[in-house]
Amino acid sequence: MARREIPEEFLDGYDRTLDDVARTGRLLNRDELASRRTAGEQAAEAGHSLRSLINSHLTVTRAAWPRHASAHADSALAAVAQVVDALAEGYERAQHLAVRQEEAERREFIDDLLHGSADLGRLAERAEHFGLRFSHAHAVAVAEGTAAYSEADPVARRVELALLGRFGARQILLTTKDGRLICIAPGDQTDVLTSFAKQAHAATDGGRVAVGRTHPGAGGVVQSYQEALNALGLAERMNLDDPVLYAADLLVYPVLTRDREAMADLVRSALGPLRQARGGAEPLLETLTAYFDSGCVSAEAARRLSLSVRALTYRLGRIHQLTGSNPADPVHRYTLHTAVIGARLLDWPAKEL
């Protein structure tokens, strides 16, 4: 690719300044340095490289140097060094400003996208700049750990570098929001989301990752994001151990709580009598949870609770005595299991229903 020529406007006055410095032996004054910084800023904004800008100034220096062959040659060289430093300072300042502006625009886009209240047409136009095409369906993965993360956080940078190193510049958007790591990718690129989950789980020292379902359009990104957040919240309430959760696998839980009052009534009716037990309902509810989670295998449930099988059997008998429902009876089991899930979702008995 041919090197772009530096316009004369970025060199204006430099030859005269150099000539005066060579004659007098002085250093550059404040205004002259400011003009070189401005030239550096404007060149950066115009898309010229710093190397081309400096080379153009050195070309002027070589062309004018024969007139400067005097006792003040050292001063002229010192002035050239000042010019190069001022050009670089202005150029870098413009680049830093552009980076900050890009970061601000990116953050505004992310907030608008995930909040779901922005104009969809305008959002789609902006999305192209950040590598998203809403003509494709997308899925969102969200990771959270023990700390809150920002885009400048080493954890976020580690995950980003790992994914970019493997997948390159695919249509992937990696960011953070509310202290969580977020990956937005085309829904058919499940390898990206799987890799993100693996990298994020490791980088957050065992944090949990949730993946929303694939949905089309900008609104689909919001929906997938909300599904991932809901999955994280559900995992917290249900004490789910899985490091990676898929919203598609958890659809039964929102269904169970869609009629909250009906679920609360079931919990009160089926499990309310457990409050009469010595120590309250919590130990027996924990027993039922372990029993159902272990596939109703008494030995495994006892191991999870650090109990003997005899002690577990006593607890199950006490539950039968208080509730009238036998956890080992298939007829009663479904009602009790559903009530236990409802209790965990509704945070009973910690909260009154």
Automatic annotation (TrEMBL):
InterPro entries in alphabetical order: CdaR-like_regulators (IPR051448), CdaR_GGDEF (IPR041522), PucR_C-HTH_dom (IPR025736), PucR_C-HTH_sf (IPR042070)
Domain annotation CdaR GGDEF-like: ranges: 116-232
Gene3D superfamilies the UniProt entry points to: PucR C-terminal helix-turn-helix domain (1.10.10.2840)
Record Pfam families: GGDEF_2, HTH_30
Domain (PucR C-terminal helix-turn-helix) ranges: 284-340
Family per similarity comment: Belongs to the CdaR family.
Name of the protein this chain belongs to: PucR family transcriptional regulator
Species, as recorded: Streptomyces tubercidicus
